[in-house]
Amino acid sequence: MTREEKSWILYDVANSAFILTISTAIMPIFFKNVAARGVENAVSTANWGMANAFASLLVALLAPLLGTLADYQGWKKRFFLGFLFLGVIFTLLLTLPGEGDQVLCLLLYVTAYIGFAGANIFYDAFLVDVTPDSKMDWISSNGFAWGYLGSTVPFVLAMILIQKPSLAGLDSPLQATRISFVLTALWWLIFSLPMIRNVHQHHFIPPSAQPLRGSFRRLMATFQEIRQYRLAFLFLLAYFFYIDGVDTIIRMATAYGVDIGMTTSQLLTLILVIQILAFPFALLYGKLAVLLGTKPMLYVGLGVYLIIVLIAFYLPELPTASKKIFFYWMLAVLIASSQGGLQALSRSYFGRLIPKEKSAEFFGFYNIFGKFAAILGPLLMALASRMTGQSRYGILSLAVLFVLGGLILLRIPMSAAASEE
Predict the structure, then answer these.
(1) How far, rounded to the nearest angstrom, does the alpha carbon of residue 394 sit from its chain's CA centroid?
(2) Is position 163 within any domain?
(3) Is the dihedral of CA 150, 151, 157, 159 positive or negative?
(4) What is the pLDDT of residue 254?
């Protein structure tokens, strides 16, 4: 690997700590138990959900315009740095809210999340700058793989501190929680330094005297010339369906574990196991994509998720708790085997279908399709569950998303991506 490729991969190690430690594990508990103390559970949960939805929606709506601006020479790095520092600074500021500071906590978290999600648009777009088409699958897979593994380090340290604050000379778990926010921010910043120093924009559009007006014009031109980019938008449509199924399964996994009687410690252990197992499997997907082609491996991932849906469908009908827990662990292993690979190869496949000089603009669209996909899966589950009266049919309905995604993917010729010609 070149220095640029390694530096790009390390940023996934950097930012994955935020999504695991802040968004997924520790911050929601801190918000509920500290910042929103005294607020009814239903209200605080709704507020937390609304804050996440608002942050995701704002980034998704702005992504194509920001991306179009960032495609000008020298701008992609500036936008990346701006969002990166926004995220790091506001993650540090999460140490400020105390008991009852619900509004302050949400404002700080939303701003930090916008920094994280915004920087990711330009990070993904830099893939075309750091590596040639022939290596995109391998480099993208390495990003996800090392991100999964690297994110566990600050997470495990944070959990140790919170459970045993005296080990670090701290007085309480609350102090340890605040230290974990600092630890996450520093981890994010330190592992971003190679990207800041070594990654540069090689594909770009020449500077404009009126960049904002020019960006709007180029954005409109992309829509008007959509036939010219037919394969890229066809892939985005396929991605919209199947990534929604992936995200819905990931979100439902913990709640499903609670329903079958797993304890909090068992679930935390399971989350760690998934993160660790996802590391070698993401690399395996990258290697097999080089040998067999990206599209066949995307279908392997979709096939694995169809198996996951079928197991989840039959899980509630198993006769004993021990069998349910056994098959739940099987589900977790299957999720770990394919979630990183499917996402990594989707990113690299899309990267080979788009015009390199417009990479930030097109990854802005990629971001929109990924964010808005989070609506369809839960809605489909809710409708199927209501119509049948059984939640397991809601889970089975997710198979429709993987089948639709696979069928649309069939319409993209095998020779569409450079490395598969």
Answers:
(1) 23
(2) yes
(3) negative
(4) 60
**208, part of any domain:** no
- Residue 284 domain-assigned (yes or no): yes
- For residue 93 the two structure tokens come to 């500021």
With beta carbons less than 8 A apart as the criterion, state whether 199 and 4 touch.
Answer: yes
**Residue pair 71/221 in contact by the 8 Å Cβ criterion:** no
CA 262/CA 26 separation, integer angstroms: 19
Q: How far apart (Å, rounded) are the C-alpha atoms in residues 380 and 384? A: 6
- Name residues of the chain where pLDDT drops below 70: 207-209, 211, 214-216, 218-219, 223-227, 251-265, 371-379, 381-382, 385, 390-391, 414-421
Q: Within 71-135, where are the H helices?
A: 75-92, 102-125, 127-130
* Cα distance between residue 368 and residue 366, in whole Å: 5
What per-residue confidence (pLDDT) applies to 307? 93
Q: Find the CATH number of the domain harbouring 86.
A: 1.20.1250.20
* Other Cβ atoms within 10 Å of 114 Cβ, number: 20
- How confident is the model at residue 110, as a pLDDT? 93
Neighbours of 399 (CB within 10 A): 16
Query: Counting beta carbons within 10 angstroms of the beta carbon of residue 9, is it exposed (0 to 12), middle (13 to 18) or buried (19 or more)?
Result: buried
Nearest one of 410, 341, 387, 328 to 137, comparing CA atoms: 341
Residue 170: give the domain boundaries.
Answer: 3-196+214-420
Q: Does the residue 148 lie in any domain?
A: yes
317-336 pLDDT, tens digit per residue, is 777 777 888 888 888 889 88
Q: What is the pTM of this model?
A: 0.82
Q: What residues contact 358, with CB distance under 8 A and at least 6 apart?
A: 68, 71, 205, 218, 222
Across 265-373, where does the E strand assignment appear? Answer: none
**Angle, helix 136-163 to helix 3-17, in steps of 10 degrees:** 40
Distances (CA, A) of 50 to 55, 106, 382: 9, 10, 19
* Collapsed DSSP state (helix, strand, coil) of residue 71: coil
Instruction: Write phi, then psi, for 413 (nearest 5 degrees).
Output: -60, 145
pLDDT at res. 421 = 37
